[in-house]
Design a protein that fits this description.
The chain has 63 residues and is an all-beta fold. It has no helices and 4 strands. The radius of gyration is 15 Å and the shape is elongated. The model has no long low-confidence stretch (mean pLDDT 94). Residues 5-45 form the Thioesterase domain.
C-alpha cells in the first residue's frame, strides 16, 4: 500500500469529557480507497463539538 494523500484540518482544541471519531469510506475502487474522519468532543451536557476533520487516500502498489 502507498499513501496517495493525507490531510488533517484542526478546527479547535479537543476539550470535553469524551473524544469521538467517526470514519467513513468515501470511495473504494480496485486500486484506491479514500476515507474521511470527523473528530468531535462531547461535553458534560452531551453537546458535540467538531474539532478536526481528516481525509486519507491509499493506493495498492502494482507488482
Amino acid at each position: 500500500m502507498l499513501t496517495g494523500g493525507f490531510t488533517i484540518s484542526y478546527l479547535r482544541p479537543g476539550e470535553g469529557v469524551v473524544l469521538r471519531a467517526e470514519a467513513k469510506v468515501a470511495h473504494a475502487g480496485s486500486r484506491q480507497a479514500t476515507c474521511t474522519c470527523e473528530l468531535s468532543t462531547i461535553d458534560g451536557d452531551g453537546t458535540a463539538t467538531l474539532c478536526a476533520v481528516a481525509q486519507g487516500t491509499v493506493i495498492a502498489a502494482r507488482r
